[in-house]
Amino acid sequence: MGFNERRxxxxxxxxxxxxxxxxxxxxxxxxxxxxxxxxxxxxxxxxAPLTKIRLELLIPDxxxxxxxxxxxxxxxxxxPEKKEPAVANYRVAILFTLVSESSLKILDAFIRSRLSS
Length: 117
Fold this sequence. Notes:
The radius of gyration is 14 Å and the shape is globular. It has one helix spanning 101-116, and strands spanning 12-13, 17-22, 25-34, 38-43, 52-61, 65-79, 90-99. The model is unreliable at 1-5 (pLDDT under 50). Helices cover 14% and strands 50% of the residues. The chain has a six-stranded antiparallel beta barrel. It contains one helix and seven strands, in the order E-E-E-E-E-E-E-H.
């Protein structure tokens, strides 16, 4: 029995600073991977599944420096699945629900540059 990949967009590894607004307030984390449809990142705080959030990140661009990207999304997965005092970082998966055309172009260019290198 094979595994069926559900993702529609190509995902690439990314070491990007992420600011999340919503849930426990403003949280700073680190992206682990990203696509044009979502992001997987580490957060020092637990963010419950189905929480609506706004993400802000800076995408490196070799010609223009860092480009700001803002996306709305919803938490679809958190590891571990519940808040635990001994956990230093939670891994959070976000599905983007709203991405502006300009942010989508920046994300797409970043992902394509990672795939071609």
